[in-house]
Each structure stands twice: as structure tokens, then as C-alpha cells.
Amino acid sequence: MKIVGKDQSKLSGRCGRSMYAAYYKDKDITILKSKPRSIRKKNKNNERERTMRRFSKISQFTKERKWQLIYPIWRYYPNKNISGHHRFMSMNNKAFDKEGNLAYPENLILTFGILPQNNKTRVSINTKTQTVNIEWEYSLRNARTYDTNQLGYIHLHSKKIYNPVYTDIKRISKHAVITLQNEILAGDYLFVFFYKPKSLIDAETPEFSTSEAYQL
Fold first, then answer.
1. Rounded distance, CA 175 to CA 45, Å?
2. Which end of the chain, C or N, has fewer beta carbons within 10 A?
3. What is the edge-to-edge ordering of all strands in the sheet holding 29-34?
4. How far apart are CA 70 and CA 67, in angstroms?
5. Global confidence as pTM
6. How far apart are CA 128 and CA 184, in angstroms?
């Protein structure tokens, strides 16, 4: 609070927590006004709006993959309180930036299930033939149970996610050479997983492993 005016009899400035005095020199009057709502509350509203926009964009990203990933894979693994759509969003939250854009594709999880992943998977590219070499160690407990699991993969090419490819290469082979549909570009990713082939036809719940991302 300051004392202003020619005769030093006017007040100007904050007066307590919720009021302030404003001295208008041209009218020679002092008016008490309510303190404006805090900037913090305004920032909080902006943060809420940003969060809602981000949620909306990630939800749209998920909807666009309904028939590609959600319906054939993720819908089989909901718990009592969450759908396949929202499970996909929850598990892939770290792949998106503050604005809801796909910024960290290495954090994407495109398949999800009860089958185990392999140990020490290695992915390399033959640039001359545009083929991808995939090797893995196979030292799982009860290994014979998973011998006939087969390799699947999904190519993220130029920020576009292509449909899953289901090969007939068995887990026990420990090695695969695949040719991708599109030319491999910098920033592309390959998501590797295993699936139980018979489960896609006969079982009520198809069986997959959780995908692992490899930058090409």
C-alpha cells in the first residue's frame, strides 16, 4: 500500500488479501476494487484444457486402430473396469508428448498378451537387400510349451503403423529374415511379437506376447 496525491492523503495498492485501492489522479478519487482471480487459477484452467486436448488426440489415435489392433488383439484383455480401447491408451501414454502427438514411438506397445517375450532379441538391417534379420535366444522355462509360437511383426514406416504380419516362423528357430513391404527409412521401427497360431482360429482368446520395439 502506498500514500499518493499532492497532499499525501490518497491510498494506492493492495489492501489485504482480497481488495486493493486504485487512485485515479485525473478524478482525484480512490476506489476500492476486488482483487482479480489469481493467475494460478487461470493457468490451472489452461492446464485442464491442454490435458483434455491431449486425451482427445490419443483417443482418436486409438480409434483409428480399432480394426487393426484393438478389435483383434486388445479387446480380449480388458479387466473389469477398463476396455481394450482404454487399456491401449493407458499403456501407450508415454509414447505421446504434452500435446498428444506421437513423439516417442519406442514406447509404443502394439500387441499385448500372456505369452512370454524372448531373451536378448537382436534386429539388424541388410541395406543392400532391404531385409531385416531378427535373432533371439530361446531359454524360457517350460520352453516346449512355446516351441510352436510363431513370429509376428508390425512396421512403423514414415510415422504410419502398418497392419500386423503373421509369419510361420516358429519361436524355436531362433532366427528370421523378413522383407518389409516398404523401403526402410530413418526413424522407422519394427515391433516384434509372438503369437499362438491355433488360438487365432479356435480359441476364444487369441494369445500374443507383448510387442518389443526396435529402431531400424
1. 53
2. N
3. 2-4, 10-15, 19-24, 29-34
4. 6
5. 0.76
6. 11
Domain residue extents for the chain: 2-34, 37-103, 108-216
Q: Could you tell me which CATH number the domain at 108-216 has? A: 2.60.40.10
Burial class for 127, CB neighbours closer than 10 Å (0-12, 13-18, 19+):
exposed
The DSSP element (H or E) to which 48 belongs, if any, is helix 39-63
pLDDT tens by residue, 145-198: 888 899 999 999 988 999 999 999 999 999 999 999 888 888 999 999 999 987
pLDDT digits (tens, 9 = 90+) for 64-84: 999 999 988 898 876 667 889
Which residues lie below 8 Å from residue 53, measured CB to CB, with a gap of 6+? 99, 100
Q: What share of the chain is helix, strand, coil (3-state, %, to 5)?
A: 25, 35, 40
Distance of CA 75 to the CA centre of its chain: 17
Q: What is the pLDDT of residue 128?
A: 83
